[in-house]
Structure formats: C-alpha cells, structure tokens
Design brief:
The protein is of the alpha/beta class. Helix content is 35%, strand content 19%. It has a domain at 4-170 and 207-234 and 274-286: Rossmann fold (3-Layer(aba) Sandwich). It has eleven helices and twelve strands. Helix 1 packs across helix 7 and helix 4 (90-106) packs parallel to helix 5 (143-155). The radius of gyration is 19 Å and the shape is globular.
Length: 312
C-alpha cells in the first residue's frame, strides 16, 4: 500500500538516500528542507511525479502545518546534528531539535504514523562490561544527546510512533557528511596518512547510512507490530574502539599511521557497547559491513574534499 510520507530534512545525509527509495516503492514523498548546506542532493528525483519539495523552515508552523495535513507518515530527519554543531549554536539547535519537533507532534492526529531517528549516544559513558539495551539507563553527555532523549520521551506519547536509536552512521551519501567518526578517520587516512587518537579505547557501535534507509522501510512494513517501541539499530558485530577502527582502515591503507596521545581528552566522552537484539528479533539485519563502508569511502574520497561536506 502506498502512503504520502513527509520527510523533514529530506535533502540531508540520511534523507537523500531514503527519499529515492521511498519513491521507488511507490510512495508519494513530500520533502521539507531549508537547504542549509546549499545541496542539490535530490536533483535526480525532481523528475518523479510523486515527489514534492518545499524550501522552508520546520520551525515555521505556517510552512509545516499544510504538509502535515497531507501526510499519512512523518519521518522527521531535520535536525542540527552532532555535539559540535549544537555547541556552536545551542539556542538554534534546541529550537530545531526540540521545539519544532514538539510542535509537529502536537499537531499530529492519532492515526498518523511517525518513524523517528534518535541516537544511541544517549547511553553516554555506559557499562563497558555489559551491552546497552533499550532498557539501560541513559547518560547523555552532549546537548544533542540530551535533547534527543527529551524529544524521544515526547515522541512515545504518540500512540503510532517508533524510535530508532541509531548507531554512529557511516558511508557515502549524495549529501555527504565527513565529520562523522568513520567518515572522518577514513578521510584522514586517505589524505594525511596519519591520525592522533585521544582515548583510543573508547568504544561505540556503527551503522551504514543505507541500512538507516533499510530500517525505516522495515518499520513501515511492520509498523503495527513495532509501534510504540524503541529499537537500537547498529552492527552487532562492530562494537569497536577508535583504535580498532583505525586498524580496520589500515587493512585498506597500509601506510596509514595512527598514534595514541599520552595526554589530552576527547571532548566527546561516549564509550559504550550496544545490543541490537531487539530490532533483529523483528527480522531486521544490516546488509552493509564496516569493511564495505571503508572501501566505499576510499573510492568516494577520490572525488570530494572536506571543506564542503561537514556540519561544523
């Protein structure tokens, strides 16, 4: 069955892969984006008759309300993403990440479905001896993570909602982000052949950007069974430290050198391992490995340079 799906932030890193797939499955797709990074990442789908795009701000109720009225499903991707970007403009970040999403949720009917990306960075500095599950205590460190926790709580008051706590995303996208950990480390390996690591033992979980699209499609197909729940989404075999990530990259760039700094602290103190068993029990399994992503990024970085492809 086809739906009308509103994707806010649909021209961003996640949306520019998700939107073409939704159109390919026969859905009508409405995109609201402010094109903050002057991207044309959806140019290839402009010819599609079921695609509509609005250049606007999700904080403007007069812009958002008529689009919500047309939507069967809402996928709110629009956000100021990541700790550095939020730290640069904390007031603006809250207005987008909390206030605008809250306004959207207040204006939804009970029948409208919402599938929202949140973040497993909410686990903060977790228990290194045990996997973080969806029931684990949340210890968000950054403003971005704290506000994602806050809006997730509001989201789940809506009876037709799913929250996907995404792992650190990686991989090539038409609207590239090179400030994400795997993308950044691989870029440094390709261009500089050297990297200094702070707190190299800190671990986190990872997920390919195309598997983000796949889990949203999975949620749409199995919405009745999955609604009202939170799901961690990541590669279960890759709860990997920064040092381990560099060693993976070195398999493909043998002259890549990385050094552990004897002093100094990473401003991002996330350190956790994550269980993705709950979403796997619904039948979802990632299709792209970390190795796939590293090789893809190495090819991609022959074409692009970092100055245009970062959120900070």
């Amino acid at each position: 069955m086809s739906d009308t799906i509103l994707v806010t932030g649909g021209a961003g890193y996640l949306g520019s892969i998700l939107v073409p797939e939704l159109l390919g499955q026969g859905h009508r797709v409405l995109v609201l984006d402010n094109f903050l990074y002057r991207q044309n990442s959806l140019a290839a789908v402009c010819t599609h008759p079921a695609f509509t795009v609005v250049n606007g701000d999700i904080r403007a109720e007069s812009t958002l309300r008529p689009l919500l009225a047309m939507a069967d499903v809402v996928i709110p991707l629009a956000a100021i993403v990541g700790a550095p970007a939020c730290a640069r403009d904390p007031v603006g970040a809250r207005s987008v990440n909390v206030d605008a999403i809250g306004m959207m949720l207040d204006r939804l009917s009970p029948q409208q479905r919402v599938l929202m990306p949140t973040t497993n960075s909410a686990y903060g500095t977790g228990d290194e001896q045990h996997d973080c599950t969806e029931e684990s205590p949340l210890r968000p460190i950054s403003q971005y993570a704290r506000e994602k926790v806050e809006i997730e709580q509001r989201l789940l008051q809506h009876e037709n909602a799913i929250s996907f706590r995404l792992a650190t995303v990686f991989g090539m996208s038409p609207r590239m982000r090179m400030d994400l950990l795997v993308n950044d480390f691989t870029y440094r390996a390709v261009t500089d052949r050297a990297l200094v690591l702070f707190e190299a033992h800190f671990k986190r979980n990872y997920l390919h950007v195309r598997d983000v699209t796949r889990v949203f499609l999975h949620g749409l197909e199995r919405f009745e069974a999955m609604r009202g729940q939170i799901y961690n989404v990541g590669l279960s075999n890759v709860n990997l430290s920064k040092l381990g990530l560099c060693q993976r990259i070195q398999c493909y760039i043998p002259d890549f050198v990385f050094l552990e700094a004897p002093i100094g602290q990473d401003p991002d103190q996330r350190n956790y391992i994550v269980s993705n068993a709950k979403v796997e029990m619904t039948g979802f399994h990632p299709a792209y490995s970390l190795n796939d992503g590293i090789q893809e990024l190495i090819k991609g970085y022959t074409m692009i340079r970092k100055y245009s492809y970062s959120n900070v």
